[in-house]
Amino acid sequence: MPKGPPQPKTTQRTPGTVELKPAPFRNLDAKLVMRDELEIRHLVYAERHVGEVFAFPDGIANRLDALGMLTEKYGFQYMRKPMSMIRPNTGLVARQLLSQDVVHLGTKDRRVVVAGKGGSGKSFILLQIAAMALMQDYVVIAVPRGMDLVDNRTAYLLDETTMRYKQTEYMANMLARTRRACAESLNEVNLIESNLIVGANAQTTSHR
Questions:
Q1: Burial of 56 (0-12, 13-18, 19+ CB in 10 A)
Q2: 52 contacts 85 by C-beta, under 8 angstroms
Q3: Beta strand ranges found along 8-155 (DSSP E)
Q4: Nearest-CA neighbor of 142 among 98, 187, 178, 94?
Q5: Which range marks the domain in which residue 54 is found?
Q6: For the chain, which has fewer Cβ within 10 Å, the N-terminal or C-terminal residue?
Q7: What's the pLDDT tens digit per position in 138-162?
């Protein structure tokens, strides 16, 4: 019997995971500059690598883009592959948040406020820390521009139960970005249904 037309190949994927496409910000016309890939040690021990430039690994770059963090203000649209220059303050933040010496602590003991003048590199340090967190399979929630939440640029409504304002559209978009970027990590999070409380004092308890 004659053979039928070839059937398209299918790829098995874990339910709930999202396939990340190649990042659209790459400029394939840009000059190819060979750089080593960014690793966790470059960030934790940043003082040893100040001024050195490393390329974001492809998978991490795709996920940062899914979070909306690879914006044009960093100049990535001019690069063939997104790169990162190490700064001394990166190590201070990385060790406080994600080093092996502090991972056993609760989040209240690992909070960091990155402050500085405009253009001093705050956002870029947070970008590097987000990359490090993704390398360690943390779930990263990114708010690209927090000012949009407080200057009436986003739609909001009053929750009559809590008497607080909600920005449901902004929140939905932010969580959708998180799901796209952190699908595999989210699949490992187990929610304890008995601890899901709906109402004014809503809390969600989870463990990994």
A1: buried
A2: yes
A3: 53-55, 83-85
A4: 178
A5: 40-207
A6: N
A7: 899 988 676 766 666 777 777 777 7
